[in-house]
Amino acid sequence: MQTIPRHTLGRRGLLAGGAAAFGVLALDALEADVQAGVRKGRLPRKVDVVVVGAGIAGLVAASQVKQAGHSVLVVEARDRVGGRVLNHELPTGGTIEAGGAFVGPTQDHIKNLASRLGIATFDEYVTGKNVYLSSLLGRMEFTGTVPPDPTILLDAALALKRLNAFAKEVPVDAPWSHPRAAEWDAVSLGDWLRRNTVNSRGVEKLIQSWTQPGFGADPDQISLLFVLHYIACSGDETHPGTFERNSDTVGGAQESRFVGGSQRVPLELARRLRKRIALNAAVTRIVQLPHGRVRVHTRRGKVKARRVIVAAPPKQVLGIGFSPALPAGRTALLEQVQMGRLMKCDAVYDTPFWREKGLTGFGIAETGAVRVAFDNHVTDTGHGVLLAFVGGSAWQQYGTRSFEERRTAVLEGFAKMFGEQALHPIDYTEHDWTREQWTGGGPTAIYPPGVMATHGRHIRTPHGRVHWAGTETSTYWTGYMDGAVRSGERAAREVLDAL
Ligand SMILES: Cc1cc2nc3c(=O)[nH]c(=O)nc-3n(C[C@H](O)[C@H](O)[C@H](O)COP(=O)(O)OP(=O)(O)OC[C@H]3O[C@@H](n4cnc5c(N)ncnc54)[C@H](O)[C@@H]3O)c2cc1C
């Protein structure tokens, strides 16, 4: 199985194809340029640095190695660049993202990179009220972060305050070194919520609407220490991470998106690297030879390098044979982290009808396929787009159903939040990251209890001449595009210092 195309069913799909907007054509041209420019035929015999993986992390690392005047080759398993960042051209016009999309304050590494590449951002639509569907209280409209559900409001606010306070103490580069690391890692976020809230069921349901899109998991699947680290990472060197900066739209990680779609970032990077990228070149083996060389075996042949940067997601690294073998601790880490389970489902409408009702298009529900909804509008048409994240246990329930059943459940979820018009989209499309062979889930690798405190320390430690990049290795915005950029920069620095 290669990359799975987004599953699209649109009543105007085929008709609208010819009316593609300028931005779509420009993107097609960019993709064509990248495909034409990448390396064809045999790989070079040797280079200074091989980078494994053409996601944002790998492409950033390779760009920096190239800028420093060294030869570099990026070897990528897929037939495209971008990894977890993938644009989807709507047949009705405009671009949305199947994977990573939103950026926000303190994510300056991705935002500055995009700006240097000539890619602008636009803000998420936030005018009006959000919707909350409670199984107890019914439908409520609200402003702010936490819905005004009196049965959970105080509980949730206190729990979030405590999580923020704990996270403030967690060192972003070494969460395992905190004196309470073992204690916090012994329990899941779900365990902790049950012990520390009165209406634990209600609070857990609410927190699921953060963990399902954010981790592709439920509170019971992720360690408290991992969650505290994730919150601590939601900032930068001068702004301590907070839950709100991670979860919010205004002032948070969902504040804006890239004009033309986030995949323009890796595509623009790849356009500048050209034949330094080899696609369809999955790495199968990395052998460290005597005399300071490393031999990288790919499905397109072998290449020798002085240093290697592996920028593939952690679970994918398990598919690569290493000689000498990876240290046992690193192997245990890779075996025990898991990828989240997440899909994005988008419905396109003639107009963003919810805005006329004074609604933002953001919604939270306690049950159903749409636990979290966003206004996912496109910049170049007047159409409205609603986005549902289906992750964790919602993915278990709906991700495994037929396309038609899931489509119905998602549209019904939107209708409960925003009205009956939601049942009649002009297009519907979805992307399931669990079906992506070279990613294996999303949005990020998650740590179940008992892994981070014991094996987390291996996450960035180089293995001889092999260095590690990828968003999961970042100390800020790990799991995000910003973390991917940061990790590529850090890995390039390590290698350049060593060359
Ligand atoms: C549904 C979803 C929603 C998301 N939403 C957001 C968001 O709104 N904002 C945000 O900032 N982030 C978001 N993310 C996360 C973000 O997309 C990732 O953090 C980021 O793109 C990771 O980049 P990376 O370079 O570290 O890894 P990847 O993008 O995974 O790149 C790794 C590359 O390695 C390649 N590879 C794997 N194995 C091999 C091998 N053996 N040989 C060669 N190549 C290999 C893969 O094909 C891939 O191209 C989301 C992700 C998903 C899936």
Automatic annotation (TrEMBL):
Belongs to the flavin monoamine oxidase family. InterPro entries: Amino_oxidase, FAD/NAD-bd_sf, Flavin_amine_oxidase, Flavin_MAO, TAT_signal. PROSITE patterns: TAT. This is FAD-dependent oxidoreductase. It comes from Nocardioides daeguensis. Pfam families: Amino_oxidase. Residues 56-496 form the Amine oxidase domain. The keyword Transport does not apply. Its cofactor is FAD. Keywords: Oxidoreductase. The keyword Glycosyltransferase does not apply. Gene3D superfamilies: 3.90.660.10, FAD/NAD(P)-binding domain, Guanine Nucleotide Dissociation Inhibitor, domain 1.
